[in-house]
Amino acid sequence: MRGRLFSHGDLLLLICSVLWGASFALTRGAVSHLPVMVVVGVRFLVAALLLFGVSPKSRWPFSRTEFVFGGAIGVAMFASYGSQAASLAYLEPGQTAFIEALYVPLVPLVQFALFPRTSKIPGPRMLSGVVLAFVGLLLISGTTPHGLHYGLGIWFAIIAALSSTVEIILVSRFAVDIDPTKLGFIQCLTVGILSSGGLARPGHLPILLPEGIAMIALLGVFSAFLQPAMNYAMKTVSATRSTILFASEPIWAAVSGYFMGEVFTAPQAVGATLIILSVLLSGRE
Length: 285
Hints:
Elements: H1 8-31, H2 36-54, H3 64-88, H4 93-100, H5 103-114, H6 124-140, H7 152-174, H8 180-195, H9 210-233, H10 239-245, H11 249-258, H12 266-283
């Protein structure tokens, strides 16, 4: 009997990729109404509350290992989602998503650097993918031979890519022995707590507009599904394969951005194409 092309874990990560892509446009809309840390904090506190209320597993006693591993992943998520939201305050959804997709060729490289004994040595395809991704980044960012044009939005997206790399590696290492819902609850709660400084700064209480509330609430629902789903799927799907399955995320982000009026210039479109090619090339290693 022939093996299936996609396992259940693969299909679940593909669904996550579509929802993550759509979330870029929602986050972009939310940060146009509210401060970045308010968006991130409320999003993940809502997600943690939903997991706590819906799943009895989120209310079970937690071991020290679950707190430490879930908290460590949550810190990486805070850096990733915080930087992503900050980038979306400056850039369009598709542009941020394609730059953040740099984590795909980075995951195998960083994984090998951190765990050389248990990781595959990056080969020529992987290294070629990194070069293509770098050229694509230059084109998307608007860099010309006359100088670098890396604004804050670009740098925040790069930080998000690096943080996502760490998050995926940590999940692949630690999610195997922990219940995915319990891990997801600790992750979301950690991000919410770390972001809470932006919720109630003295003299700077945010005004929650209905549009912003609706967008953040939907983002919270997304995260309440996405984090446990990713934790569950990566029990059986490797970090490297997971990143390949996430390759369509920037495409869905660009589609959602299109409906918000986002338009790519010709060089940016070429850069986006090179990043996708780097993802596919890296995945064939």
